[in-house]
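WARN no homologs supplied; continuing
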Amino acid sequence: MLIDSHCHLSYPGLIENIPAVLQRAKAAGVDKVITIGTDIPDHDKAIVIARAHENVFCALGIHPHHAADADEGYAGPLENRLRNESKVVAIGECGLDYHYDHSPRDLQRQVFLNQLDIAGRLALPVVLHIREAHADGQAIMRDFPKLKFVVHCFTGTPAECEAWLAMGAYIGITGIVTYKNAAHVQASAKLVPAGRLLVETDAPYLSPEPMRKMKTNEPANVAHTARYLAALRGATFDELAKQTTDNVVRLFGGRLLRSA
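OK structure emitted
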């Protein structure tokens, strides 16, 4: 069994035909999916999807791209949903994105901190989005040493990966690792201890080889990333599938092994 630990079933390209998407995932051995809500309107969609499908769970957060769009009073309702929705397994994705800077950096940091405070109160794991902001992200996370977290879609350097690992991070690897020009991601993926590696699609984005021409990525394709990673790390596919599934359950909780 594989788990796609990070995708966006609520996004165009997937939301229009979720039953077929999930059927293809199951046929590929992907038994569970975590869909991520990235802003307040998206949370509604993610929750509806997770409630409707027993093998779908969700995380809710404010993506750094949307930090500037969050209403002043967003934190209270977000915390209530995280507390009360049975299919929610984490807060996020949240963090810092200095590549696009869709939101001012000081606002990104404040919204990030607000969500980490919520995670601490609720004892929830955190899904981090960190792009070209690893030093600042690490400086912030050092003030939250008790939180469990994953750096999703890791695209940093091996040195940045090692720094996150030293802080206890899980590392999420997407189909980017299969790309010919992704040597730094491949090197980082080899560094991650077996007990801290997750596989994910970030669908509908980042289709892996040999499906890279596929316009809309989907959870079934996490199997291609897992096969590539297994070969890269000198493991069998079955070993890597079991290990990454165990890691997802350890990070996000045993509910992932049970039906809704």
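The CA atoms of residues 24 and 220 lie 6 Å apart.
OK
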